Amino acid sequence: MRIILLGAPGAGKGTLATAIKAKLGVLHISTGDLLREELKNKTPLGLEAKKFIEAGTLVPDSLVIQLIENKLAASDIVKGYMLDGFPRNKAQAEALDAMMTKRQQPVDIALYLEASLPVVLQRLTGRRVCRACGAVFHLTNMPPRQAGVCDACGGELYQRTDDNEETIKKRMDVFLDTTRPMIEYYRAQNKLVTVNADQESTEVVKAALKLFS
Ligand code: AMP
């Protein structure tokens, strides 16, 4: 199965991706995670991307397309792939179509997690992420057993630098102006499926997984 996850920041793409990966065994590629890894390792690409991530704007297409190409070249995608946070604009969607047509592995389904603004704001401001394993928690919706400590691996929980109100607003603007039109792009290809992502995350996951049973 070859899947694209679309949705505003905070819509729950990462949580759903973990569940889909567990069920289908597809390769999960999150451009946000790849970029944060480059940043952590202080690579030239990471340092170039830093200012865009911190401002809540899009990293240049050439950099993220290169990241995706490198990841695909180094990975086994026999069981399929799931892209989370990519494509985010038309140029990226067209680049992806070209890449996947060449590999004869076109996208099967674009899953749109539709969430409203107050819901995503509440989710993002309370989000905490494990520095070691990337597990995601929420101060009120899904608190860890011990404050500041990951339930899964005991790692330290932190707040992403771009999960502050000012940057969240910018990221939402970018989503509405640039990424939301991708919904029409995939609708026109008859690949779009919409899931109500204002529901609790367990319900979102349940509704989405039904599509793959
Ligand atoms: P995310 O983890 O998906 O919320 O992404 C965090 C930040 O990484 C975004 O606000 C962008 O600055 C950058 N980013 C992630 N994916 C992309 C992409 N496909 N194109 C451009 N920038 C991206």
Features:
213 residues; alpha/beta; Rossmann fold; 2 domains; 5-stranded parallel beta sheet; 3-stranded antiparallel beta sheet; globular; binds adenosine monophosphate
Describe the fold and architecture.
- Helix 2 (31-40) packs across helix 3 (44-55) and helix 6 packs across helix 7.
- The protein has helices at 13-24, 31-40, 44-55, 61-73, 90-102, 117-125, 165-179, 181-188, 201-210; strands spanning 2-7, 27-30, 81-84, 109-114, 127-130, 136-138, 157-158, 192-196.
- 31% of the residues are buried.
- The mean pLDDT is 94.
- It folds into two domains: 2-115 and 165-212, P-loop containing nucleotide triphosphate hydrolases (Rossmann fold), CATH 3.40.50; 127-162, no CATH class.
- A five-stranded parallel beta sheet has the order 2-3-1-4-8, sandwiched between helices. Strands 6-5-7 form a three-stranded antiparallel beta sheet.
- The protein contains nine helices and eight strands.
- By secondary structure, the chain is α/β, with parallel strands linked by helices.
- The structure holds adenosine monophosphate (AMP).
Write the layout of secondary structure elements.
Layout: E1 2-7, H1 13-24, E2 27-30, H2 31-40, H3 44-55, H4 61-73, E3 81-84, H5 90-102, E4 109-114, H6 117-125, E5 127-130, E6 136-138, E7 157-158, H7 165-179, H8 181-188, E8 192-196, H9 201-210
Helix pairs in contact: 1-9, 2-3, 4-5, 6-7
Bound molecules: adenosine monophosphate.
Adenosine monophosphate binds next to α2 and α3.
